[in-house]
Amino acid sequence: MEVIHATGIEGARHAQGLAVVIDVLRSFTVSAYALAGGARECRLVTTTDEARALTAATPGAIICAEEEGLPLPGIAISNSPTLIKATDLKGRVLVQRSTAGTPVAAAVRTGVDIFAASLVVAMATVQACLLRKPDVLTLIASADHPEDHACALYMEAIINNEQPDVERLLQPLKNSERYAHAMSGAWPGFPPSDLELALQPDRFIFAMPVTREAGYLRLTRADQQPQKG
């Protein structure tokens, strides 16, 4: 199996084989915590207006949206796994709009199957991908951010039966001003606890396949068998 690394919308448009769209901070970490908390599915859209309209049209749906990493007026839950963990999502639908993850997933062309991923579901996503036996796997960092690249490298190492050092892979993030800003608590809608929740690898043993529906992408939970040994 050939592994290709790509970044952003342009990378998504040229994805080959099976595509994995990675957004660690924070969109697809949010999705994972929502599904772990009992959400029936997540519905991904590319604009806030679409998110508001889809939420209004979906009984019992909850909206989670941000723009440029910042919360929006009238939307209680921004792109925060901390806030998602504190929300009762059992049997409900989470409608998501984010700056990187949801538009990049939407940019993958029809005919290419998609998984959404983050560190908390990295190993389970690799397991799900290997079961498909693709000739080519495209790992797409949704933004040119160190944590998304780290997750892609972590997943590739697992594929190659290596023992990845996640702390080493995440060091460029932890050395960044962006990380310091998030840790300071001064970033609106981005509590420091989001970092702890997002940067723990393999917290969950399910993958998140994405299917195309009219007007949105549908993200669901696909449980994997835990690794032995």
Give a short summary of the structure.
This protein is an alpha/beta fold.
Task: Tell me what you see in this structure.
- The chain has helices at residues 8-13, 27-36, 48-57, 81-85, 101-107, 122-132, 146-159, 166-174, 177-184, 193-198; strands spanning 2-7, 18-22, 41-45, 62-65, 93-97, 114-117, 136-141, 206-213, 216-219, 222-223.
- With 229 residues, the chain is α/β, with parallel strands linked by helices.
- It has a single domain, classed as putative 2-phosphosulfolactate phosphatase.
- Strands 1, 2, 3, 4, 5, 6, 7, 8, 9 and 10 form a 10-stranded mixed beta sheet that branches.
- It is globular and about 45 Å long.
- The chain starts with a strand and ends in a 6-residue tail after the last strand.
Spell out the blueprint of helices and strands:
Layout: E1 2-7, H1 8-13, E2 18-22, H2 27-36, E3 41-45, H3 48-57, E4 62-65, H4 81-85, E5 93-97, H5 101-107, E6 114-117, H6 122-132, E7 136-141, H7 146-159, H8 166-174, H9 177-184, H10 193-198, E8 206-213, E9 216-219, E10 222-223
Parallel strand pairs: 1-7, 2-6, 2-7, 3-5, 4-5
Antiparallel strand pairs: 3-9, 6-8, 8-9, 8-10
Helix pairs in contact: 6-7, 7-8
